[in-house]
Amino acid sequence: MLSLPPLLLSAGQASAPSPVEQTLIEQARSVGLSCTSSTDAELALQICDGALQLYDLNEPQGKGVIVDFLSGQSAYRRAKGGGSKEPIARSLGIKTGQPLTILDATPGLGRDAFVLVALGASVTLVERSPVAYMLLADGLRRLALSEPELAARFTLLHANSTDYMQQQSAKSVDAVYLDPMFPHRKKSALVKKEMRLFQAMLGTDEDADLLLPAALHVAAKRVAVKRPNNAPFLAGQKPSMAITSKKHRFDVYINN
Questions:
Q1: Which residues are annotated as a binding site?
Q2: pTM metric for this prediction
Q3: Which of 12, 116, 150, 254 could form a disulfide with 121 if both were Cys (CB 3.0 to 4.6 A apart)?
């Protein structure tokens, strides 16, 4: 069972919601979230400066977690990354001038998906968490205002990824990308801020092993699984090959 924080409007707001806020409220209700002014929960979604952010209410001075494709890590990877030579691109078989259709079954904050889209792929994001879905939807809304062509290559769905892939026709996308939540033990800033909030909200993906057979069903060419270097193979299944980076490896399952 997912633990869902309340959706809050900006603190102390007395006026009627803006059009953006009203749209976010309606989207939240459509995926089962309700708006409240209560601050009893430890986590909350809050509309701040026109963007949706996830906050830890126990850290009032802390920054919110936000999906932002226009700056920060996403923009840096787009400008300074290795392009088609990046490990994630190689693991999925991305080549210049050969756009692929990719299903990202564990999109998180969408950073890896943005790299794939920037390299020319069309990416379907399937997210089961209503909160993560809302953050992604708001990030894509803001991306569309500045770079509509990039935003148009995304498709965002609210669904259980395993169920969704099982219901699709066999080999209906070129590739599937999986990055299931894995317990983080190192006390890095990322773990403290973003991953800690995500794990507090979602927990680890205890059903992650179910993703691989469903992904192999729907992928025409390959499935790439991002894992910490010390993590076991997903579902205990040895990959066709692995591409390693400094902190991660990408287990690649070639579909014949």
A1: 111-112, 127-128, 179
A2: 0.86
A3: 116
